[in-house]
Amino acid sequence: MLSVLKSPRLRQYAVILLVNLSVLTTGMNLGWPSPMIVKLRNATETPLYRPITEEEGSWIVSVGFLCSVFTNFALGMLLDCIGRKYCVILTCVPKIIVSILFIFATDVWMLVLGRAFIGIGDIFLLSVVPVYASEIASKDMRGILCTFQQVFSSLGIVISLSVGPFTSYRTFSIVFAAIILITSIPLFFLPDSPYFLYSKGRTNKAIEVLKLLRGTDQAAKEEIAEYAISMNNEKVDKMKLFKNRLVLKSLGISMVFCAGSQLIGFNAVSFYLQTILISTKTNVMPEIASVIIGLIQFFASCCTTLVTERFNRKHILISSLIGMLIGMVALGVFFKIRENTQEVSGFMNYLPLISLILVVYCYSAGMGSILWVLIPELFEGPARAVGVTISFIINMLVIFLTTKYFTALTLYIGPAITYWLFSGACAIVCLFIYYCVPETKGKNFSDIQESLGDREANDNVKGSLS
């Protein structure tokens, strides 16, 4: 199918676009809580026999992230067993089953169970797609192609925010199930990762895929030579990876980076978006405002694909965090003023919307997109699957904590202090990126490892992995 396209670059685009169709429905699932939690709390709109409580709502939002903490590492082992392609296809199974369960849900436990299983599948998918994309893309296209994940995730969120508030719960569930089924079909036509094929001794097949994606036999053989250097043509003992200084350094940076990317509060704000807009009690319609914010998020993700190849990764990340810091401070200021004022008017009516737009835009144009590019780049071949899996386990654990206890935190210390805490986290993560995260733009995986330590140490690491 890909051979119809004459340009190798177009073939790479086509493969990454197809694999990210599965991320579209993941985005819909991520955007699901914003309109659906409001409906489930409403006695006239809920399909359940009673409205849900605040505690039940927090579990529905967060349970998938908690479950993925315990399952993602085990599932991550499948990356090197059945391959990246079939891992992506595997994630479609729980999504299809759960989307049908949602249509007929009548009790809270059905939603909690469904959100747990679909969350496990989606989080595993978000771990697999960056690995697959980084191995499909050539060095000069890796940055722009790996940002497609955030674009498609944002598009899915836009669909949920645009359709969810204006349809019934059951109608939206049917739309959700239909889109999952449609987007699952093209996945069967994807090529597997050439790196995975080579690691399994299928060198000829790996060269065939690389010739299709790189355009020439010489380019394919050069990349195969890089694979050989990376793997030393030996089976890697996974336990040895945790004894190597550079691998541990990469892992430490990626774990802190992943944790920081969630402690800044974006997902806590995003999942409760419509609820937050309702709580502001301004004249802006929450349903319309959430659609606007969703469109801004999608636009920001598209912008990232354009700026990623023009600017360094670190500059984009630091700029996005500064913007988020300003937005979180402004949200805190609004809610602090709101505590002492019965009604707001004029500019104050629009301050929450402007602040949320700033937070969403800056996250999606920077941290939210670069995260999926940078984490796989920090690890060289043998360590990539394990490193990415562990990093995203930390990511999911922190998402669970921030989404599960966000409402409780706002009730206990107040929304103003909560948003100011998020702004403080933005400042800390900004400093961490400036001093600790290496620049990866335009570098191959070996170059990135050398930037984490001297060449001699890096050579020792490679030798110890054989």
TrEMBL record:
Report the GO terms under cellular component. Answer: plasma membrane
Q: Which residues form the Major facilitator superfamily (MFS) profile domain?
A: 15-441
Read off the PROSITE patterns from this record: MFS, SUGAR_TRANSPORT_1
User: What's a Gene Ontology MF term here?
Assistant: transmembrane transporter activity
Where found?
A: Cell membrane
Matching InterPro entries: MFS_dom, MFS_sugar_transport-like, MFS_trans_sf, MFS_Trehalose_Transporter, Sugar/inositol_transpt, Sugar_transporter_CS
Regions that span the bilayer: 12-32, 59-79, 86-106, 112-132, 144-163, 169-190, 246-268, 288-308, 315-335, 347-374, 386-405, 417-437
Q: How does it sit in the membrane?
A: Multi-pass membrane protein
One of its Pfam families is Sugar_tr
Q: Which UniProt keywords apply?
A: Cell membrane, Glycoprotein, Membrane, Sugar transport, Transmembrane, Transmembrane helix, Transport
The keyword Transmembrane helix is assigned to this record: yes
Give the PANTHER family listed for this entry: GH07001P-RELATED (PTHR48021:SF1), PTHR48021
**Name of the protein in its database record:** Major facilitator superfamily (MFS) profile domain-containing protein
